[in-house]
Amino acid sequence: MRPANIVTSVADVLAGIAISGYFYHLTFTTGSFYPVVLLCLSTIGLYSGGIVFNDVFDAELDKVERPERAIPAGLVSLKEASFLGIFLLLWGIGFAFSYSNHAGALAVAIAFFALLYNKISKHIKFIGPLNMGLCRGLNLLLGISISVPMLTHFYYLAAVPVIYIFSITMISQGEVHGGNKRNLYIGGVLYAIVIAAILYFAISQQQSITIGFVLPFAWMIFRPLLSAIKDPVGKNIGLAVKAGVISLILMDAAWAAAFGAIWAGIFIACLLPVSMWFAKRFAVT
Fold first, then answer.
1. How many CB atoms are located within 10 Å of the residue 84 CB?
2. SS3 per residue for 184-217
3. For 130-168, what is each residue's pLDDT tens digit?
4. How far apart are the C-alpha atoms of 173 and 195, rounded to whole Å?
5. Where are the domains of the chain?
6. Rounded distance between C-alpha atoms, residue 22 and residue 143, angstroms
7. How far apart are alpha carbons 4 and 279 in whole angstroms?
8. How far is CA 151 from its chain centroid?
9. What would the DSSP string read from start to end of the chain?
10. Looking at the domain covering 3-273, what would its CATH class be?
């Protein structure tokens, strides 16, 4: 289920909620936090369910390339993993619909594109990274859907996580056997575009404090990427991918800060050590 990655999906939703402006009017009552909890529970089910099906569909390939994974290692049967994946996806869709039909429709779309990626598109060079990015973009919109008017206003922001995850997925294609520098350079350019987009909104919203989140974000993603470019072996690429995934939390914190939700940004950033703690104990990729 990749617990470290699940934390990043929660950060996506919290960033979306911050973009919607919901935290501006949040009162510290049970009722006001209820929608936030529902959407966070939804993304936990959707992301972990998608990851489980990644291993289900890759079970035969993993016997050769990733024998340490749970299914080829014999820790979990294929049938058990399939039932778990179905349960988790239904969990995610159910919690989303319990909040609103808009959130539910987005959850169905996320589940569909996650399964499409795992079964078909990840084996297609350009389409695979785009598909995976779309899942993250929709996940951000799942958070923004807490306010339907803001969802219709900021729907295009889904393009930024699409670009970011597209870059990570491209970089990861050389994780097992080593990669070529071309993909790594493209990933670096796409990272820079994402940072520029965040800074654009921070400047337009006059939120200069956002730089405090952007700088550590840039450091975390570019440092291992530069090492991978210098020596594009599987180990270095794996570290670059791992850093890219975990750094999503800082990207989401920067989004929250760029839209004036500073305290939400700080809270999201505090999820980073949680994700890193999980990353030391469970696989990230």
1. 17
2. HHHHHHHHHHHHHHHHHHHHHCCCHHHHHHHHHH
3. 898 899 999 999 999 999 999 999 999 999 999 998 888
4. 23
5. 3-273
6. 10
7. 5
8. 19
9. --HHHHHHHHHHHHHHHHHHTGGGG--SSHHHHHHHHHHHHHHHHHHHHHHHHHHHHTHHHHHHH-TTSTTTTTSS-HHHHHHHHHHHHHHHHHHHHHH-HHHHHHHHHHHHHHHHHHHTGGGSTTHHHHHHHHHHHHHHHHHHTTSHHHHHHHGGGGHHHHHHHHHHHHHHTTTTT---HHHHHHHHHHHHHHHHHHHHHHHHTT-GGGHHHHHHHHHHHHHHHHHHHHS--HHHHHHHHHHHHHTHHHHHHHHHHHTT-HHHHHHHHTHHHHHHHHHTTS---
10. mainly alpha
The closest alpha carbon to 226, from 244, 249, 248, belongs to 244
Write down the pTM of the prediction: 0.89
Here the tokens at position 2 are 């990749």
User: At which residue do the structure tokens 């974000």 appear?
Assistant: 217
Closest CA to 134 of 108, 160, 153, 154: 160
Token duo for residue 189: 């350019």
- Structure tokens belonging to residue 102: 């808009």
The Cβ of residue 37 has, within 10 Å, a number of other Cβ atoms equal to: 12
In this predicted model, what pLDDT tens digit does every residue of 215-251 receive, in sequence order? 999 999 999 999 998 988 888 888 999 899 889 999 9
**Half-sphere exposure of 117 toward its Cβ, with a 13 Å CA cutoff?**
27
Asked if residue 141 lies in contact with residue 39, where contact means CB atoms within 8 angstroms, the answer is no
User: Could you tell me the two tokens for 84?
Assistant: 């778990």
Instruction: Please write the tens of the pLDDT for every residue from 34-90.
Output: 999 999 999 999 999 999 999 999 988 888 888 888 898 889 999 999 999 999 999
Residue 87 tokens read as: 């349960």
- Give me the half-sphere count of Cα atoms (radius 13 Å) on the Cβ side of residue 83: 4
